[in-house]
TrEMBL record:
Pfam families tied to this protein: Glyoxalase (PF00903)
Annotated keywords: Dioxygenase, Oxidoreductase
Organism listed in the record: Bacillus salitolerans
InterPro entries: Extradiol_RC_dioxygenase, Glyas_Bleomycin-R_OHBP_Dase, Glyas_Fos-R_dOase_dom, VOC_core
Protein known as: Ring-cleaving dioxygenase
Keyword Ribonucleoprotein: no
Length: 323
């Protein structure tokens, strides 16, 4: 079957135990725009918050499910162990380092990984994040910062960078990335004494890489507050996504089949070490149910949940997102 290469990161979805603190951190500290306040479509009793560039362009979305009763993450293998966020240039990391000091955000020193300047840090729940410089990027284009962000445009976060997998069996994950998903092995580097393999797809570059760290000396990660739920990679449209549905069916990989998410269309499966991967279409996007100017200000529900709005809202703790 003639499949087009995946286009890079689409979104990363993580877990929080507190939507209000999460909203404050990602909008007021990191300066991202909340482009959609909606619910987890598989459990409408909890919020699903989408933070991104000015309009939630594909490749810029960091999303969170709010599970108030979630326990703390037990770190380990077979996990998405870090999410990178792109900033325009090396000098931006100095800006962010000072900002993290001012706001007492846990962070490390600036370092260089796979030829890029990086700055790792954690949010209030221990979510593992890395700022990565786009100064030398020659791959997938970045997003566009929201003009009302508290962060100066020249230093603002402009999308998702490399996603890190930590796995017990490198060969098994590498096989899925290359032989099934069409990634190319690009590079390798050492992190804390362990080898990391770099894979890229599509145009490559900061927004189209997966970094895979092999650690077979750790327990399997237990997800909770501060962990990543899944990563989604970009496919161009629904026609292309349906081809992937057929491919996974033909090779008998257990999967969700086609899933309607309204803001995009999806397909889910687990790779060989158990990490949940989604393939998602670039569109339709987030402006089908609210205008660009007021994205994220009200609770948005896909049309197929609209008749349940009263019941859904009654189960959610109010979250004020209109500044």
């Amino acid at each position: 079957m003639n499949l087009k290469p995946l286009k890079g990161q689409h979104h990363v979805s993580a877990i929080t135990g507190n939507a209000k603190k999460n909203y404050d951190f990602y909008t007021k500290i990191l300066g991202l725009r909340l482009v959609k306040k909606t619910v987890n479509q598989d459990d409408t009793s909890v919020y699903h918050l989408f933070y991104a560039d000015e309009r939630g362009n594909p490749g810029t979305d960091l999303t969170f499910f709010e599970f108030p009763n979630a326990g703390q993450t037990r770190l380990g293998t077979n996990s998405i162990s870090a999410t990178s966020l792109r900033v325009p240039k090396d000098a931006s990391l100095e800006y962010w380092k000072h900002r993290f000091v001012d706001h007492e955000i846990e962070h490390n020193d600036i370092s260089y990984e796979s030829g890029r300047a990086t700055l790792s840090f954690k949010d209030f729940e221990g979510q593992r994040l890395i700022l990565v410089s786009d100064e030398n990027n020659v791959g997938v284009a970045s997003g566009k910062p929201w003009e009302k962000s508290p962060i100066p445009k020249e230093h603002a976060i402009v999308g998702l960078g490399p996603v890190m997998f930590t796995v017990a069996r490198l060969e098994a994950t590498a096989n899925v990335l290359t032989n099934l998903l069409g990634f190319r092995q690009k590079d390798s580097y050492t992190l804390d004494g362990y080898s990391v393999q770099v894979f890229e797809t599509g145009e490559g570059g900061t927004g189209a890489e997966v970094h895979v760290l092999e650690r077979n000396d750790l327990p399997v990660e237990r997800q909770g507050r501060g962990s990543v739920h899944h990563v989604a990679f970009r496919v161009e449209n629904q026609e292309e996504l349906l081809k992937w549905v057929d491919v996974l069916k033909d090779i008998r990989v257990p999967n969700s089949g086609f899933v309607e998410r309204y803001y995009f269309k999806s397909l889910y499966f687990r790779e060989a070490n158990g990490i949940l991967i989604e393939l998602a279409t670039d569109g339709p996007g987030f402006e089908g149910d609210e205008p660009f100017e007021t994205l994220g200000e009200k609770l948005s529900l896909p049309p197929y949940f609209e008749n349940q709005r009263e019941a859904i809202e009654s189960r959610l703790k109010p979250l004020e997102t209109k500044e």
